[in-house]
Each structure stands twice: as structure tokens, then as C-alpha cells.
Amino acid sequence: MKDFNIMRDLLEDNKRLAEANHEILLSKGIFTINLLGSPGAGKTTLLEMLIRELKDEIGIAVIEGDLYTSNDADRIEKENIQVVQLNTKGVCHLEANMVKEALAELDLKDIDLLVIENVGNLVCTASFDLGEDIKITVLSVTEGTDKPIKYPLIFQKSKIVVVNKMDLLAHTDFSLDKFYQDIRTLGEDIKVFEVSCIGNQGIEEFASYLKKLIKENKLAGEKN
Fold first, then answer.
1. From residue 205, how far is each of 46, 61, 104, 190, 209 by CA, in Å?
2. What whole-number distance in Å separates Cα of residue 37 and Cα of residue 35?
3. DSSP element (H, E) containing 161
4. pTM score, two decimals?
5. Which burial class, exposed, middle or buried, applies to 132 when counting CB atoms under 10 A from its CB (0-12, 13-18, 19+)?
6. Spatial contact of 165 and 144, defined as CB atoms under 8 Å apart
7. Rounded to the nearest 5°, which phi and psi values hold at 181?
């Protein structure tokens, strides 16, 4: 019972800080994505492709979460956008207080889209809101079809699921039919994109949908 109470208090504190982060970002008209997925799902490569597709039209900043290294942040920095690295020192997820510190390091002026690339993990990351507008989970076909059923919470909380590495589909036992059947049991409104960063498959469609969400966010902010 003691451990349960500690976790409850931790989540409550995190929720309060996440709401404060969201208010800051909302006041600046910044649409924020919490990008989730397993290690090796291809989150960083997908993010690189999206940045290249969007950055001429949209101001983008990235917060990179990792256990110990700055490898992913170094890659994103080459795209000539603002990047802040967060190292969790072994903690398997980002928390709202970490994002609060990262926001203080960013120049939020002229930023339309903030992407928080979370630590690779399908469990803890689902429980800790960061102040984002939406969660997006990336699932590689190499991970197996059963991930949505084995880790339902992260998929239920995601507005978008990206099925990545579609170029490898024929070399795996991943079943798209079973995936769609399972994902619809978790959420009828979950938007799914099938992509491959090899050959740019599905990237333009995914980027266009994000532009639509960013525009809607701007319009809603102007009305308020």
C-alpha cells in the first residue's frame, strides 16, 4: 500500500506540472507532440523525415529524451532547428518537471510545433503526461503484431499510431489485418499511418495531417 501511495503522489505531482507546461505552450500557440515507441522503432529517423518535410513552412523545436547519450539530439541538431537534450540517467521515461526545465532553454518565439521524443519504452511513458496536445506511438513491423494487445495503455492514449518500416513487411510475420483488428478494439478513432523512411513512403501524407492539426491548434488559440 505504501508503494501504491508513493506512485499515486508521483503521478499527481506530474499531472500538475504537465498542466502548467501545457498552459505555457498553449499561450504561445505551440502544438506539442509526445512521440513514443520502443527502442529501435525508428522514432528518430521518422522525426528527421518529418522535420525535412515541414521546416520550410513551420517553426519546429525538439526535446530529446534518452537514458544517457546525446546521439539522437546530435542527429536532430543537423536539421538546423532548436534541440534540447534530456538525459534521465536510467529512468525509463520523461517526466513533466524535466520538460519544464527544457522549455526554459528554448526560445519559444516563432515555434509552431514542439516534438518531445520520449525514451524508448512502451510502459512507463504511457502514464506520465508531459503537457502535450497528443501522443503519437511508433510501432515497427519488426516488433511483431501483438504489441497493441500486450501494451494497450500506450496505444489507447495515442491519437496517432505510425506503423513504421513498411519496406520490411514482406520479411516479417507482421499481420496488418490483425493489427487493425486489435487497434480498433482499443480505439475507434485512432488514426493510423503506414510509413517507411526508406523511399519516403507515407511521410508526406503523415506530415500533411500534422500540418492540419497545427493549423487547427492555431485557429483555436486565436479564438480564445
1. 13, 21, 33, 16, 6
2. 7
3. strand 160-164
4. 0.94
5. buried
6. no
7. -60, -45
The edge-to-edge listing of strands for the beta sheet with 191-194 is 82-87, 60-66, 113-117, 31-37, 134-140, 160-164, 191-194
Interval 142-186: pLDDT, tens: 999 999 999 999 999 999 999 999 999 999 999 999 999 999 999
DSSP output for 183-215: HHHH-TT-EEEE-BTTTTBTHHHHHHHHHHHHH
Please count the residues of the chain.
224
Q: How many CB atoms lie within 10 A of CB 105?
A: 13
Q: Note the pLDDT tens digit of each residue in 88-136.
A: 887 889 999 999 999 999 999 999 999 999 999 999 999 999 999 999 9
**In angstroms, how far is CA 109 from the centroid of its own chain?**
21
Report how far residue 142's alpha carbon sits from residue 37's, in angstroms, rounded to the nearest whole number: 13
- Pick from 61, 47, 224, 53: nearest CA to 216: 224
Helix ranges (DSSP H) in the chain: 2-27, 43-54, 71-77, 96-103, 147-150, 152-156, 176-186, 203-223
Region 2-223: CATH code: 3.40.50.300
Cα dihedral across residues 46, 137, 215, 28: positive or negative: negative
